[in-house]
Amino acid sequence: MQTQTTPTGPQPQATGRSLEHPRREAIRLEDVLHALSDPMRMRVVRTLAEESAELTCSVIDLPVSKSTTTHHFRVLRESGVIHQIYRGTAKMNALRREDLEALFPGLLDSVLAAAALQEGRLGGDRG
Amino acid sequence: MQTQTTPTGPQPQATGRSLEHPRREAIRLEDVLHALSDPMRMRVVRTLAEESAELTCSVIDLPVSKSTTTHHFRVLRESGVIHQIYRGTAKMNALRREDLEALFPGLLDSVLAAAALQEGRLGGDRG
DNA sequence: GAAATAGTACGCCGATCGTCAAACTATACT
DNA sequence: AGTATAGTTTGACGATCGGCGTACTATTTC
């Protein structure tokens, strides 16, 4: 069922497993704020922002179980904060920067800056 | 126990009933985001921001019961988003703009802007 | 002191949350 | 085909959430 259009060399292609994402216009501020109000999810978002690239779930390595990790990534996806796509056995994650910036200008950046500032204040423990 | 410094004429002074507020340094980003992720509380915050003045709880008039209203105001206070003080039988509420701006620069404004934009998009129903 | 006003405290409810372990699915590698 | 890798699903758990009504407290006004 491969319906991919842009082959990218030796890396595995996207597969048929589908993931539901809210359309840009369907993203709601309260859902985004709720998604960001959990420390584990904030960690994911900050990592994604720092790397500014697609990352697999496992590369982020939260101190919770695999199933809890799955849960947090789903909350982030369903709230519209991240985009996920299957690639081989992995699932790539990326921030929906453009969509968020279009809907809520400056919000993501100020949240990320606030998180960084707070981490500094609290002594670098990131929690 | 009136320890008020700026008498403002015929209106009642602050009374002895005490309200716990987190110190500025104790305010946590995740608590603020959680506080703002509820539509009723967002309504309160937006109203406070628009009026840019102290308001009583009852002036804001949420479509929930009195006790639920009390609950929401407490969440906002305990998260550090608003400051509350008793004045006679009323309780005055104000945004902690300075503290929030010092801790999380630009955050409150971008959240308020985002809420306004979303209200526009969604047709002015404020929910 | 009595009535009115403004908000609190205390349970209670059903729903959602964050967490886990166990069993499972999908893909890749050999 | 068989094994390894990566993530999902399900169902459970205790905790928290947003909501309510009722009874209560504090203050002002009469």
TrEMBL record, chains A, B:
Q: Where do the HTH arsR-type domain residues begin and end?
A: 21-115
Query: Any idea which UniProt keywords this protein has?
Result: DNA-binding, Transcription, Transcription regulation
Domain of life (superkingdom): Bacteria
Matching CDD domains = HTH_ARSR (cd00090)
Disordered: region residues? 1-23
Bias-annotated ranges (Low complexity): 1-13
Q: What SMART domains does the database record attribute to this sequence? A: HTH_ARSR
Q: Which InterPro entries match?
A: ArsR-like_HTH, HTH_ArsR_DNA-bd_dom, HTH_MetalResp_TranReg
The protein's matches in PANTHER family, at most eight in alphabetical order, are given as: TRANSCRIPTIONAL REGULATOR, ARSR FAMILY, TRANSCRIPTIONAL REGULATORY PROTEIN
Tell me what this protein is called: ArsR family transcriptional regulator
